[in-house]
Give the backbone structure.
Amino acid sequence: MERRISWLCVFILIAFMATAAFAAEKSPPKVGTSLPELELLRPDNSVDLKYLGLSSGGKTFKLNQIKAKIAIIQIYSMYCPYCQADAPNINRLYGLIENNPALKDKIKMIGIGAGNTSFEVGTYKRKYAVAFPLIPDEDYKIHKILGEVRTPYFIVAKIAAGGGNEVIYSRLGALENIDLFLAQIVKSAGLK
């Protein structure tokens, strides 16, 4: 009887540890931590490449290759009704950054289409007139690395030349007040 109880305790302990490890593996990036290394598909058009400050060679790029101090990453899906409804607001954020000479070259935006093909990303970009680069993540590889977050999800990271990009914002849901969000990012990044 004691042996059965011991084995039962061992089994419960192993199950608990596996569940904890699984849960930890799927958590989104936390503020103050390093963003996991992301290998993103390089945009195939010159406008997006120029915006990010990337050369045209190669199939992929890493976040620390973007010529900026801050990267705002939107995890979205073409099929997410919240992402669709928030698209005009996100486009406004892009416009606020691009029309501000103090921020234009310091903050860049990208969208990562969770489960979206290049075709779906292109369709979303055209339909919602998105001016910043949208990156397909057809196989959910990036989505898994980022904790399988729901959409829309926003991550803001300070870009470090050698990697170890620091997360300064991480949140699920549409950005309700773009002006307040941008002010918070500028302050957290120490840009002004």
Q: What stands out?
A: The mean pLDDT is 89.
